[in-house]
Amino acid sequence: MTVNINQNPEQIARDKIDEMLREAGWLVQSKKKVNLSAGKGVAVREYQTDVGPADYVLFVDRKPVGIIEAKREDEGHRLTVVEEQAVNYANAKLKYLNNDPLPFVYESTGTITRFTDYRDPKPRGRNVFSFHKPETIAEWLKKGQPLRERLLSMPALDETGLRPAQIVAVNNLEHSFKKNRPKALIQMATGAGKTFTAATFVYRLLKHANAKRILFLVDTKNLGEQAEQEFMTFQPNDDNRKFTELYNVQRLSSSYIASDSQVCISTIQRLYSILKGEELDESAELDNPNENSWLQNKMAKNKAVPVEYTPKVPIEQFDFIVIDEAHRSIYNLWKQVLDYFDAFLIGLTATPDKRTFGFFNENVVSQYTYEESVTDGVNVPYDVYTIETDISQNGAMIESGWFVDRRDKLTRKKRWQQEDEDTDYKRNDLDKKVVNPSQIRNIIREYKKALKTTIYPNRIDENGEYEVPKTLVFAKTDSHADDIIKIIREEFDEGNDFCKKVTYKIEEDPKSVLNRFRNSYYPRIAVTVDMIATGTDVKPLEVLLFMRDVKSINYFEQMKGRGTRTINSDSLQLVTKTAKTKTHFVIVDAVGATKSKKTDSRPLERQKSVPMKDLLGAITMGHADEDLFLSLANRLIRLEKQITEKEKDKLLEFSGGKNLKQITKELITAFDQDDIDTKAQLAIDKIPIEDRTPAVIEHSRNEAQEQLILEASKTFNGELNDYLDNVRKQHEQIIDSVNIDTVTKSEWETTSVDKATEIVKDFTAYLEANKDEIKALSIFYNQPYNRRDITFKMIKDVMEKLQLEKPLLAPDYVWDAYTQLEDVKSKQPKDELTALVSLIRRACGIDSELRAYDKTIENNFKTWIFKQNAGQHNRFTTAQLDWLRMIKDHVVSSYHIEIDDLDYTPFDAKGGKGKMHQLFGNQMNEIINELNEVLAA
Fold first, then answer.
1. Are 510 and 531 in contact (CB under 8 A)?
2. End-to-end CA distance of the chain
3. Per-residue pLDDT, 607
């Protein structure tokens, strides 16, 4: 907007307000030229009321609906003070009209605008980016009750199928809405069902509060696809149709927002580009924008391009905005996207930081931490197993004169070369500058060994083969992932299906591979760089192997979250046959990721140079900044001198036929004043001389520059960016096959040992606390001579009470804790109840070490038979021994035998009570009592 320097502040403010009204679809008229039929919405200046002239009166469909109280810009801080003045005009009688009070009231300086809907139960003013459209106001009036009043009459939540934490979150959120709190934060542990919770309250807002449209905002395409999937599968309690049969869900893949969509799913970067009137390449949605250091630097220097009013996406486009993973991309540059909309904001996150609490006005409606979710049995806990190797810790030296392979990073082609100088590489150079296959191999080999001996030792299938638990490996780069996959297949002696790469860049459909990893037997191991670090459910996962470090605490928590998901035993056994239950998962840390220093969020780039990837990403996302264009141009000038002719030809495939010199020239031209003037002059020459005002010339210059910027930036796309980013990196990696690595450490982390001690202590304390209440425990502790009377039902009662009150103390998990603290020679019994008996016997001191109870019974039986036969010279016949073995087998599974049990399987098929009496005569009862006592000893 062009400002006349002779205008006073009031006139400047009025001109800005006029412009804002026109953009929002209002016709602005003076009181002397009123024509209320000229359009749907008319704003009349200086309209006379019985308390004086109102700055603007708003008419919709010829009826007065609201007023605007205009103030000059330097009175922005006083807008709340002028509310009373504005209300007086709204309540006044308009000249010529016998009107009721007008409900919609704005106070504006043209820079700051506040709005109050006086139909609300407790009308409260709020800042808005601009004015609402006349069509919107007509729709509000037609609906009758305003949204904030409709929120007050939401029916009680049907809690069926919801977890306690989800019930708390939905109820507290709706209470926050009723209090007209504009922002609310739900903190919920990864794996506790955040998106399901969101689908629940979104459904209720659409159905019971008649919300028009709700935005579900994410920061990567992957999370958007998952949210869409969640809505597609969500079925409300009060309807037998799926959510998507009841409401239209649209995941935005362009700038088009369907008028009939009730739920929109979008990345924040796509929404930003829509508000700037630009299309966005889908490649810009693959990475979390919060990881882009160029953008972070720009935001720190307050050089973010501001959004402007966009008529096709008005401020009232959404009634509610749900911000998924709200700890990440909602600050600085992105905050203005949220400030644009007149909507309630609901944040969902597992890992908030200080900024998150501040942004949401400290209105945390529910907090459900990972620790609480573990205690409730919603998520599983984890243990840490550390593998360290000499080269992982210290690097190594490649001496001059050695012959080594050098590998091209892009083509993977190798060449054999004699080194002419020493190369001393550190741990941080690994898998970037230098690849040491022995280092990767020793980690994988040690992982395989530790799996079988320590981590999950009881995974032998019916063929006697070890079954590898579902494992996710985090790699540094695509090339690192390829090296890991090759070595895993070799070391585990398996084929291609056993271990797969899951990243955005694989040839195979990544979703298909991920789906197989989640639901099928193969692959057993997946290696990823980017794709499933966050927000992807793979419930059967039991191991996370870290072969890359992470500095961001939030990102690390998200990565850990991949393993926390619970899964029922039947579903787990569909993909991992030898797994009984998922009681925990294991982080295998091969890079010190669990110990390295973490920060609240990604720090700003400390070195002068911003990564090329970030510059390319910023341009693809539509940023037009002189620093950005010139920085990238300088990089490309240097790159042009480095790359081969073959690589230059390859580049043309991705750039639409433009070579690097042409691309660079376009980047520089976009901000070169001479070039801009030359292009502008072509347009100016077509304008009559008398119309060439300074404003027109300035407009031509701006248009010329916009065209040049567009021409330069539209060259960049995902494929070109990927190529430029990779081709510019050091072309070759040294393959150090000479320095052979050795494992220096392979053990449970000390914290895990401490945790194991705590688990055993908790288990023992729980048994102690309940020893007088639970019959079986009472016998074990207080009447050990009565152990023969313990029945299957008694043990089941202990298990049920334990599952209800202490789900964390599952027998599998307590058994694993014991194995970390003492040399447990017995394998864990396959049956959970048998394992529980073994643990109770160890905890209360009957056994001095943890022994599998089924093996204890077997040993006690052998000892008893030996004594019987030794003392009475083969006391039992072969037929009697077979019967006694049947009794022993029954006690192994049922812990006790009664005379009446002989009438049931397997005894009934062999003749039951009659047969035993025939075999043992009057000794029958004595034998049964003796075996009950001896076997339970």
1. yes
2. 93
3. 32
